[in-house]
């Protein structure tokens, strides 16, 4: 049943040797690795306006200087990551850079923050994509959470089937998105320049604002910087580029930075000039699109492509999370199961974990993008800061040619990232405090897993061998519940192995049945020693384990090994199991955790 | 943890020999066995009025003739059950009577109906008890379902601790209830006779009613007969009476009938005379009490005692269900686990099953008594009818002295019960149709369980013996995952038993590791044969089972027994299990269901 269902859903299993790596050219790489960053413009500008709204529409002109600040931050980040690309041509990523330069704990902090972040990438992108859909079709507005969860499930199934980053089909929507936003911005600007948009709609630049505080300004800046999430993606994926990989990656990063800067500035400017106010039921991009083109075909195309690219951005979470999980698992910081490839060669455990976690987040936050974004953004700027600081340390330590210049760039990057992170903590503390609790817990968890795996390794290694105990004889204990074929079957097997002793044990609940059983046994199996135990509390496990412990204790003295043979009948149909007491399962479960006891299940299959 | 929790909740386990039987004298028996029947007057009269309400308050005088009809039914049932008491002094009950006289299917139908009914007894009584509480404290009205569920849990815990039918403490509330209702009725009648109650409140007897139909009249009659649920309880419990048991039981039954008749008539009359209309948020008994005594201390005492006796009535479900379940389980119609006594000597599986099912019902029906009662009542009249018909057949077959008279009584009983049942089906079909689907399914289910147990018995019995296969040699297969202490431990054990052959099996996911492992193995264990399997789909189970099947096939030819020894390491802490792949568990689960294969788990306990 389950197998069939799985086949239909994700397809036939693939052979290991089918695993091939396809290298990306720049055009494709730009499309695939930028969907996360570029799609951020669909919600980033809106976040600025949401904060400014507190001051009234009069404050919207502030979005322009704030946007300029964010562009500066973008330049700093792009330049810093460019250096990471050349320094770690095998795929840096905050985890590797921090671990190598700042020590294990920083690496784990970055790794943990990134894992959480990829989950948030999925939750945020899918929620924002759902917003784009429900903006276009307001009647769907009540079903946001449901639609978001269905989208996550869909994208999960596609990834389990093995939709890899290299699928060409994923490249088109990104370029379409860029093209259509360019068009929107161009048409918008044309309308502005030809005076088709009333200048009355917006307050003029520099209008004084009552109640303005540095706090609010910083808060708006921090919120807007969520548009920069995703810029690190290229530096993690250098090995996927065609050679010379670092050069190509650096060029792609630059191209992405330029595209992002243009789209972000254009949207912020149009939103300002159109005098757009954020609404719960319609996104800012949707408002710009309908103000520019009216609610016609063009509008629906824009919304559709925006939704699509946001879903694709979620997909970058699906590529990045399992890979980082594999890295952490190989370093023994998370469970080994994340390194196992599924039927279709994807890291299915990572994919499923990511899907479950992001669905939980979407449900917890009721699919409200603006509540998820602060967590997401702060989570992004922690690894940003750690990676830049790591680079700083690296330059200081290695001092290669021109290190002063490199150091300066990374120092600026680190300082700005750190500043943004602190602004987040200060201005959005009520929303981001959980990060301060969860991240240290995650690091602790990583470390305790690591310790366990190290311990296991030590104990398995043959070289570290404690001299093993010799086994000089065998004692078999067979719990019996009656005189039946099931017991007979087990006795035959036990005898065929010629152990030094076979002991049958019967647990009686009253004295009469104890007597009666002893009587019957002595006729049936006179050569097998029977021990009867009287259980006044009607428990089989308790007297049995006590007896086994006693035998075990004695056997140890002469280096004998004790094995318990459990007769178990296996019914023909699964549901029949519910009709039997399952004592054999219980006995096995209890005995297996006793020291130095071996448990054998001797099944007897029913034929009807 | 669980054990400790269990200890606190239900107490220390008791020894089997502590099980004693206490015989009941008539006074105590009346109290304990009648709580179900007597408490029915708390909701029975209300059900009549609920139906008449459709015709308007003008129709309430009809409750008097309907009540007379129900009293006739009561007399017929009491007389009929009196005969069952003498005919089945060991405790008849509809299941036994029907099975012996009408055949297995009828018996199972009666048994199934009764099981369902005891669940409904609990659900209805607890819901009605909750109504009594929320009538007194209207602010609790929104919490009906919660209160009802908590009451079920409370009574379940008490029963798991071993609150038996014989607890004297249970007798007092019943007599208190009878006494206080007598007092209410007496005071009410006094007020009526002294003219303190305005005769304007009720429409006079015989007022013509627009829209009256036979259908509605029958429906009201059927609804009111829910006051008779529980009269069968005494006939099921005869062995608990002091000797001469049947005589004492018959006298108790008569006393109960008289009490029930008086209470029922009194409440119906007062409700009519006071002109009481059923309300959602206040029960009829509550209205009578507040009309008679005002909302003073007396009122709250009445409500409290009513709630208490309704909870006690639920308790009769807790005595009856597990006992009937034991009878059915002994006859092999339901799972054997119902015959097992728990730590405190109660049949805990039955108790827990009953509790779960009734909580589900309460939640499904949102604790609305009037929606549960039709199902309950129809479920009661099915076994009534079957039992009476069974007696009829018995008299016809056995023809003892005076059989014509006995036959007449049971025939009348059977006819009336059948009539009431049919009235239920006809007038309340939209509410009771599920019974027509579920009861046949339950009977079918009983039979298929029976067949399974019979099959098992046949296959276990040594006498029916197919000649057993001799075991002429042993082959051990050991799946190995590496060169570790865990594997070494298993190999040592295998060697100590001197089987004819030991085969180690290694599943490789790529050709290089296959080669490398063979190399290492030949140095480490040159005397143990190693077979390596190459798995291109990264599955361990599949190639392993295929290999084991091949070995098994060959071994069979020379009567060799194949055993698979699974090396399994046991981590020190439970949560560590999540960090390992659990291949050994999977392998075991798959292999155990293969024919004629024995599976041994060789644990290796980690020390850290």
UniProtKB/TrEMBL annotation, chains A, B:
Entry keyword set: Membrane, Transmembrane, Transmembrane helix
Superkingdom in the source lineage: Bacteria
Keyword tRNA-binding on entry: no
Compartment annotation: Membrane
Pfam families found in the cross-reference section: AA_permease_2 (PF13520)
InterPro entries xrefs: AA/rel_permease1, APC_K+_Transporter
Chief localization: membrane
Membrane topology (UniProt): Multi-pass membrane protein
Bilayer-spanning residue ranges: 48-81, 102-128, 140-160, 172-193, 205-231, 252-274, 300-324, 345-365, 371-393, 405-426, 432-449
Keyword Membrane listed: yes
Name used for this protein in its record: APC family permease
Organism annotation: Paenibacillus brevis
């Amino acid at each position: 049943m389950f197998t069939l269902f799985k086949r239909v859903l994700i397809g036939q299993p693939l052979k290991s040797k089918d695993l091939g790596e396809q290298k990306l050219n720049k055009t494709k790489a730009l499309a695939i690795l930028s969907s996360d960053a570029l799609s951020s413009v669909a919600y980033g500008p809106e976040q600025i306006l949401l904060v400014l709204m507190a001051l009234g529409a009069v404050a919207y002109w502030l979005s322009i200087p704030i946007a300029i600040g964010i562009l500066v931050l973008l330049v700093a980040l792009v330049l810093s990551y460019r250096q990471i690309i050349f320094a770690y041509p095998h795929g840096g990523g905050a985890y590797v850079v921090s671990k190598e330069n700042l020590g294990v704990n920083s690496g784990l902090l970055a790794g943990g923050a990134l894992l959480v972040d990829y989950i948030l990438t999925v939750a945020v992108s899918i929620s924002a994509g759902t917003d784009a859909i429900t903006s276009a079709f307001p009647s769907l507005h009540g079903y946001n959470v449901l639609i978001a969860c269905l989208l996550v499930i869909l994208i999960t199934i596609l990834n389990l089937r093995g939709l890899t980053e290299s699928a060409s089909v994923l490249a088109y929507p990104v370029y379409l998105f860029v093209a259509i936003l360019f068009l929107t911005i161009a048409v918008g600007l044309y309308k502005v320049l030809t005076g088709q948009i009333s200048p009355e709609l917006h307050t003029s630049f520099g209008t004084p604002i009552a109640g303005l505080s540095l706090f609010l300004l910083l808060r708006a800046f921090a919120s807007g910087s969520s548009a920069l999430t995703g810029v690190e993606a290229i530096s993690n994926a250098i090995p996927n580029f065609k050679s010379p990989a670092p050069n190509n990656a650096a060029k792609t990063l630059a191209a992405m930075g330029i595209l992002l800067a243009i789209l972000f500035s254009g949207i912020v400017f149009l939103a300002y000039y159109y005098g757009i106010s954020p609404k719960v039921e319609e996104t800012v991009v949707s408002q710009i699109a309908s103000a520019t083109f009216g609610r016609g075909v063009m509008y629906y195309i824009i919304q559709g492509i925006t939704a699509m690219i946001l879903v694709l951005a979620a997909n970058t979470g699906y590529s990045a999370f399992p890979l980082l999980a594999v890295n952490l698992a190989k370093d023994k910081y998370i469970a080994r199961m994340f390194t196992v490839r599924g039927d279709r060669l994807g890291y299915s455990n990572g994919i499923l974990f990511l899907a479950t976690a992001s669905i939980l987040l979407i449900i917890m936050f009721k699919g409200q993008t603006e509540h998820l974004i602060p967590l997401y953004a702060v989570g992004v700027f922690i690894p940003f800061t750690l990676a830049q600081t790591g680079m700083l340390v690296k330059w200081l330590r290695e001092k290669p040619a021109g290190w002063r210049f490199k150091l300066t760039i990374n120092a600026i990057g680190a300082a700005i990232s750190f500043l943004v992170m602190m602004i987040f903590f200060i201005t959005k503390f009520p929303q981001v405090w959980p990060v301060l609790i969860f991240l240290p817990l995650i690091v602790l968890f990583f470390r305790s897993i690591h310790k366990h795996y190290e311990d296991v390794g030590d104990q398995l290694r043959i070289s570290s061998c404690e001299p093993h105990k010799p086994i000089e004889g065998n004692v078999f204990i067979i719990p019996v519940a009656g005189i039946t074929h099931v017991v007979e079957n087990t006795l035959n097997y036990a005898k065929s192995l010629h152990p030094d002793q076979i002991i049958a044990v019967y647990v009686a609940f009253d004295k009469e049945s104890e007597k009666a059983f002893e009587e019957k046994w002595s006729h049936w199996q006179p050569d097998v020693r029977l021990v009867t135990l009287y259980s006044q509390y009607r428990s089989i496990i308790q007297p049995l384990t006590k007896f086994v412990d006693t035998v075990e204790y004695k056997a140890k003295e002469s280096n004998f090994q004790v094995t318990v043979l459990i007769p178990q009948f296996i019914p023909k149909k699964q549901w029949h199991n519910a009709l039997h007491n399952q004592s054999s399962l219980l006995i096995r479960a209890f005995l297996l955790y006793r020291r130095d006891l071996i448990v054998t299940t001797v099944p007897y299959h029913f034929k009807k």
